[in-house]
Amino acid sequence: MISIVNWILNLVWPKRFGSVIYVRRTLGTKGFRIHLLALSTAFFAVLAGIFAAGLPTYSLPFICWTVAILFAGSIFGAMWLPLIILAGILALAGGLAALHPEAPQVFVNYCSGYLVGALLGILYNDLVYLHQRFFRRTASRIVYAYDTERSLNFIMSPKIKEVMHAVPPADRDKYFQPDPDEPDKMIKKIDTWLYDFQPDHEPPYPFTVAIIANPIFREKVEDGYREMVDPISEDRELFMRSAERALQSLSQNHVVGAPEIWSKIRIVTVFHKLVPEERWEDVGMAQSYEAGLYEISGYEGEGNIAIDGVSTDDLIDAAAHARDRYLYMLNAASKEFPTSTGANGEDLDPEQLCRETDMLIILSAVPKYKRATAQFANWYEDDTMRPLQPDMNGEEFELEKVRLPEKCEDPVHAFYFHNPGRMAVNVLEASFRTYIHEFGHAISDVDNGVIVDEYYDRFFIDNLPDKPSLNIRWFDVNRFSRKVDKDTGRILQPIPREFSEYRLKLAAKKEPKTAFQSDIDHPSGKENWLGFFPARDNLDANCIMDRTGVRNRFDGLLSKFIYDRLWVKVNRMKRAAASRKTAASSNAKNRSTTTDKSSKSKRKGVDKDASL
User: Fold this and answer.
1) Smallest Cα–Cα separation from 195: which of 120, 121, 267?
2) Could you tell me which residues are beta bridge partners of residue 265?
3) Residue 340: what pLDDT?
4) Closest by Cα among 409, 377, 378 to 396
5) Distance of CA 367 to CAs 229, 304, 314, 364, 370, Å?
6) 433-474: per-residue pLDDT in tens?
7) Which of 91, 160, 289, 467 has the CB geometry, 3.0–4.6 Å to 312, for a possible disulfide?
8) In DSSP terms, which residues pair with 423 in a beta bridge?
9) H or E element: which one contains 401?
10) What are the pLDDT digits (tens) for 346-399?
11) Helices then strands (H, E): number in the chain?
12) What distance, in Å, lies between the first and last C-alpha atoms of the chain?
């Protein structure tokens, strides 16, 4: 919402106190998008001018073309601006009348209408802002606070002490209060914070998502690799705006944003300050897709690489060994936090925080690489990160593929990941939906079920000489394959009506299996695709893992699968300890065998699920 009053106040009195900035959001208030309102007003101003002058004044073809062009400009919004500038140049040069005698008057009416609409929109937004500021202060909530002098900030956490890290001691009484039931425990004040869910307990090992500003970008070029400073590492404001956009995308999702899940998720931001001697190997978190493909696969080929026939030239990719670099940044950030004798009363343990981090959201602002990609968790690059893993127990689940031989052996929703899921996003091009879409990939893992895209059939990588290590056999949660004749390639099996049966095998109670139907209305059923997918909850809403639509949500199977996975992780503080006794004897042997096989299976190559 554009408000001139708000802009002036921010200029003379920024929303910061010392080095701390409070990011706020106003609830239940909608303002005008100034440009769109002005375009609409200009369009109607032209119509009013035509009727006021009388239709005979203008020729019928001119009226038709004018209305059509201006209506298109109002619909497409910002794309109309270059034409307005061109018309203005022609008007100043006296060439507008040469195009048509009535054109100058239409242009004057249009510009006048645009100006009036913009002023009305700004005035309305200013009045709404002033009303909220002075009469409805509780409608303005703190999304998060962050300290600009620190590389790492806990912008959301079920551990209140971590949230308090960024709030100066003098301000803490404004935003926190003792818990009525436990006076020694602090809680957020009501009507102060946007995310004010109070968890029933503070998990000692919260489900953690790290949002990282990529410091150095690595690009594959003809003669090798080129490294550059990522623009987002020099623009903290852009980074924090993008982090808030990611928060909005996740919190407004019906699964991730469920109160019992969202209240126990920890979000940390890392804005690492580069020092001259640091190299890409130290802090580089993102790269061009070709750089990662060549590096991991061991190929030094040349030429364009394509996935399903679509070029990968503009894909951004998370770097290999990203967690090692993440730990490097955490060690640097720990020096900025107070010691145990400081104001906050506890140290930052980099290795412990690294162990608890389940997902890395790597943000970049390199203009060329605009399409996001994600890597499934537990992608074994080698064994260097395995010693950091404290516990790999989890809750078992069943996902039976109806009428199909494929099966995942002893799958679990693991308490922890060997290697966190990773998503690389260009903030200049990412839509609101991008973050939750890539989250769906990154929350899954190669050992216990991966969540794949549903808008193309297969995963083909073209123009590689030989790729034996790329033919990885994993378990797709939301995609099954039909039987095909090996000789003719003809599909032998129609899409089964029933997709799968799923249930979480909790030790306390065994829930009944839930059956999920196949999506026979999906394009896969009309185009003879090999793969097919679970049914949507509503035909008017596309699955988040499918093509973009007006409405997007996870389908029934993915909703339950992701919810159970998150539920296990946000509650691992109790089950991780209890399961060592109850599940170790029955599960540890099988899991250790599976883990050993996985670590030796040359899991290298392309695990990406690119948003093409």
Assistant:
1) 267
2) 207
3) 43
4) 409
5) 12, 19, 9, 9, 6
6) 999 999 999 999 888 889 999 988 866 555 555 443 444 456
7) 289
8) 361, 374
9) strand 394-401
10) 578 898 899 899 999 999 999 999 999 999 998 766 544 444 444 557 888 888
11) 18, 26
12) 31
Least confident of 38-47, 262-271, 596-605: 596-605
Burial degree of 38 (CB within 10 A; 0-12, 13-18, 19+) = buried
pTM score, whole prediction: 0.78
Burial class (CB in 10 A: 0-12, 13-18, 19+), 269: buried
Distant-in-sequence, close-in-space partners of 187: CB < 8 Å, separation ≥ 6: 160, 176, 177, 178, 179, 198
Residues 6+ apart with CB under 8 A from 598: 378, 380, 446, 447
Query: Cα–Cα–Cα angle for 127, 240, 199, nearest 5°?
Result: 90
* Eight-class DSSP state of 160: H
> What's the whole-number average pLDDT of the chain?
78
What φ, ψ does residue 584 adopt, rounded to 5°? -65, -45
| Burial (CB count within 10 angstroms: exposed 0-12, middle 13-18, buried 19+), residue 173 | exposed
CA separation (Å) from 206 to 158, 413, 418, 504? 7, 15, 16, 21
User: Of 528, 555, 527, nearest to 540 (Cα)?
Assistant: 555
Annotate 451-514 with DSSP letters as a single string. Answer: ---SSSS---EES-S--GGG-----BSS-EE--B-TTT--B-SPPPSEEEEEEEB-SS-BPPPE
For 412, the token pair is 């679990």
Alpha helices in 279-321 (DSSP H): 280-283, 289-297
Distance CA 426, CA 534 (A): 29
Which backbone phi and psi does 528 adopt, to 5 degrees?
60, 45
Tokens representing 31 are 């303002």
The structure tokens listed for 292 are 């990662």
Burial of 446 (C-beta count, 10 Å sphere; 0-12/13-18/19+) = buried
Pairing of strands 357-364, 421-426: parallel
The backbone region for 602, taken as left when phi is positive above 0, alpha when psi lies in -120 to 50, beta otherwise, is left
Mean pLDDT for the stretch of residues 529-548? 88
Per-residue pLDDT at 503 exceeds 70: yes
What DSSP line would sit under 497-554, residue for residue? SEEEEEEEB-SS-BPPPEEEEB-TTSGGGTTT-SEE-BPPS-TTSEETTSS--SSEE-
Q: How far is Cα 350 from Cα 334, in angstroms, rounded to an integer?
A: 7
Contact 480, 397 (CB under 8 A): no
Distance CA 292, CA 470 (A): 13
Task: Quickly tell me which residue has 């002036």 as its tokens.
Answer: 8
Alpha-carbon distance 207 to 199, whole Å?
13
Question: Which residue, 391, 410, 393, is CA-closest to 448?
Answer: 410
Q: Give the integer Cα–Cα distance in Å for 422 and 322.
A: 8
Query: Given the structure tokens 């209408």, which residue do they identify?
Result: 113
